[in-house]
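Issue: copy button drops trailing tokens. Both records pasted manually instead:
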Amino acid sequence: MTTICIAGATGWTGRALVDGVLAVDDLELRSAVARATAGQDLGTALGREQLGVPIHGDVGGALEGVDVLIDYTSHEAVKANTLAAIENGVSVVIGTSGLTAADFEEIGAAERLAGVRAPAETQPPDAVAGPREARGATVAGTQVHSLRLPSFVVSTEIVFGLPDERLSIRHDAGGSATPYVAGTLLAARAVAGRTGLTRGLDTLLVEG
């Protein structure tokens, strides 16, 4: 049994992840982090029956007995949360976007110093994206554009092009956070057996 803490458990994605963890037999939701509802039972905070899962105001107080921290918070909080987990010997699955290459270098250095398992990231950095606009950036040598519009919730298009030809691969999802759940739980199951930093689910999918 892998024990889980969800940081951002009362947020848009966090709520879907709570249901996902509760629905499976090999993961146990041990604690949650949500500053606005700290001190409450998670079920109560979500408007349900009590779940026996305490909500903490910060990650530092939520990691006792936890194997994996799943973080869907904000780019302001995720690095500190990750470093706190590494310091406590807890593996991390990062669903929050916005970490920079320098942030991941710092996280990797902390992991190597602590000698514990490092995080798995479930999606690429999104630091260049701004509300309701598209901006371009080069990530690891690949040109990336991030589009933020009210009608776009989960949409990814990959385009390969040569003169007079183009191959497009596109994935669109609806208005819920459900598409994030399966990949995040896959990472949560895999991260405990890994060392070092794993970027993106593609590595886990190919290995699986």
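Record 2 (pasted manually too):
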Amino acid sequence: MNNEQLAREIHKAVENANYESTPQEITVNIRKDTKKIPLPPTIMVFQAAAYLCSTILNASTNRILMYFFSKSGYENYIGIDVKTLMEELTLSKPTVVKGLKDLEKNHILVKYKNVNDSRRHDYFINPITAWRGNSFTRNEAIKKIKSGDSPNQLDLFNIPNEKKSALKPNSDF
């Protein structure tokens, strides 16, 4: 029931109310609950990024990326090491290392130094590629990356964001 229908129904109920000798004040409280349907864990993959990944990256690198999509935490955090990737995807260490380098080089992964261990890095999926979270936190993440040490990490395959929106499956690179 929309708000206009609700207002009509309330008006009818007030008109049909049985007043005794004099009209009385009527108070109407409306509580409109919207039930949220629980969704399974989801991640949005943006079309321009999906197109570039499927046409430019090799199969092993795409497998690593799909694995990252499936394991990414809220706000795209990935806490997986090379050994786990090797075991889960049955790939060799050189293949995994090369795949990670390709994902970094093409700005699909955003890499930060781990705050607790300077020998390690934390990875996040570039919010231009995909996002797990709400739009407000995505915009905040993009602002943080733009104002950080490497604002060009948002440029997938070194293509500026403005040009990505014009990409079509039949575009020439």
